[in-house]
Amino acid sequence: MTFKAEFLAELEDCLRGYGAVPVSNPDALAFFIEFVRAMPDHDKRLRCLEGVDQGSGSFWNNPAVWWEQVPRFGSGRTKCGAADCRKLLDDMLDEAISDEIDVLEMEIRELPS
Q1: Which of left, alpha, beta for 57 (phi over 0: left; psi -120 to 50: alpha)?
Q2: pTM over 0.85
Q3: What band does 78 get if pLDDT is binned at 50, 70 and 90?
Q4: End-to-end CA distance of the chain
Q5: Which of 11, 47, 92, 106 has the fewest CB atoms inside 10 Å of its own CB, making it the most exposed?
């Protein structure tokens, strides 16, 4: 399964209510899913997310993404657009990179002096 296919499957699970928390705006998340589906597999954001995840799985295990950002996407709005989707992807990437840095810093601290 490609990263994009796995990403879409996870998002669709959230939309169906199988995610960690309920989605606040199902229409916005459905729009985001279609936005991601229309992206080429070689898109920079998808490739960066995949690259970060290959190191430690920090993208799939990141609570800031899967318990906060995805469920709250589009909350308080009647309609979301492509700019909102790009921002969510950027925020996901920022969180995944930040988490990866935290993991690396912790591993460095645990190295023998």
Answers
A1: left
A2: yes
A3: confident
A4: 41
A5: 106
pLDDT (tens digit per residue) in 12-62: 999 998 876 789 999 999 999 999 999 998 999 999 888 887 766 778 888
The answer to whether 56 and 100 have CB atoms below 8 angstroms apart is yes
DSSP state of 87: H
Tokens of 65: 């993404």
Dihedrals phi, psi of 32, to nearest 5 degrees: -60, -40
Q: How far apart are CA 17 and CA 84, in angstroms?
A: 22
